[in-house]
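Working notes for the structural subgroup meeting. M.R. asked for a predicted model of this chain before we commit to crystallization trials. I am recording the input and output together here so anyone reviewing the notebook later can reproduce the run.

Input as submitted:
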Amino acid sequence: MQVISIDTAQSQAVDAQIAAARDGLNKAGMSDADKRAARDAAEQFEAVFIAQMLQPMFESVPTDGPMGGGHAEGLYRSMFVNEASREIARNGGVGIADSVYRELLKLQEG
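Returned structure, recorded in token form:
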């Protein structure tokens, strides 16, 4: 008897759903460029979500000191949060992009 943890079982189920969606799209004739565009859109959506979660965290960091504070620091923090959220989303994120991607693929099938 093989024991599989919940995380592994969930991962396998997600992988199976993604594979089934890919097969359906290949049969429907969706191009690889369209699939990549859908994946990019899903990752961008997740990046915006992550940025919304990170922004309050960075606003609570003190900005005192000789080089701290000011308008430029606010701009820098905003840019940093946006870039950090894009990298997080590109490297697996929190799982939202996968769900959004599957839904986009389903919309293309129907």
